[in-house]
Fold this protein.
Amino acid sequence: MADEETTKIKKMLEATFEAGFKELAKYADDLPDYKPIVDYFVASIFESKVTEWKGYKMSGQGFSCDTMKWVYENWTPWKDDVIVASFPKTGTTWVRNIVAHLYYRDNKTLMEMVKPMAMPHIYLETGIPLKFEILEKLPWKRRIFATHVSAPLFNFEKVKSAGAKVIYTIRNPKDQVVFWYNMMQNFPFQATDVNAHKMYPKDWNAFFEAAVSGSQLLGNKEGDWYMDNILSWYPHRNDDNVLFVIYEDMKRDPTKEIKRIAKFLGTEYSDEVLSEIVEATSFGSMKKNANPTEEFVKFFRKGEVGDWKNHLTVAQSERIDAIVKEKLADTDIEFTYEL
Ligand code: PPS
């Protein structure tokens, strides 16, 4: 990427993240200086740095094993905080938005705070720990976070004893890899960022290979892919404070699934209100309401089930079938590849 273009994007990202902080600062009296978070985050998007903890690795885009280790050891959630756990691109943002509507719909201020509560705050493992100091000063009683890490990096005991809840989302891996490819094409990696180019090649076939062979470091062990992330969370599926949600089920019957989430959170609403929430969290509404970072990476792409048929070769599709069969043999998970 040319220097001029890099500087332009850098400035745009800095301005976007700073604007998010300024927006949040309206709701708190004395926010600490947030510049170090912005600087860290922007640098990490442009030049990925591999971090490692317990044999699990993360690389760039604001994600850091150092931050996750800090979270594991030092951060305690609040009662009824929700953490949406997922492998990337499986419905995290949709579920976070549903929870936001269920939790905040009667409070205008909290609803306003949802949009700036975006990157670099939302993932437990993004940014630097200073962000938690900032979030603690804001006037919400229940927060909504996300995480992409494998379960061993997540402090279940602490989360449970604090009374916080976890929603784990699952989506069929063929649509997942297609979305992931499309989004990563919009990332402004530097030509010198060898690591990022190895993990996210421009060529579709090479990208597919990097994904399924576990070369992308997203809080996993090298060689582990999406199925290993599922396997790590699967033993917790029946924990009292954990709910598994399936993207394709939400597409098939959003009212039913939103009702299930509402019940899990203890926030039951009338059918009329639920249908308002279904509408407010539909793909069309969320796309219209996208924040600047989401617009930048063209985040709301299609939101469909089965788009993989336009991208995967027969061999690639069969490769995923074989991995799923091998890895998930001892689970009751069955993916839905078309509706
Ligand atoms: S991330 O970056 O990991 O948080 O991505 P994630 O939110 O998990 O997944 C992004 C995909 O979810 C789609 N999406 C939705 N689909 C249907 N309805 C709603 N409301 C919705 N919101 C987000 C988003 O468009 C990405 O999928 P694709 O298929 O690429 O469009």
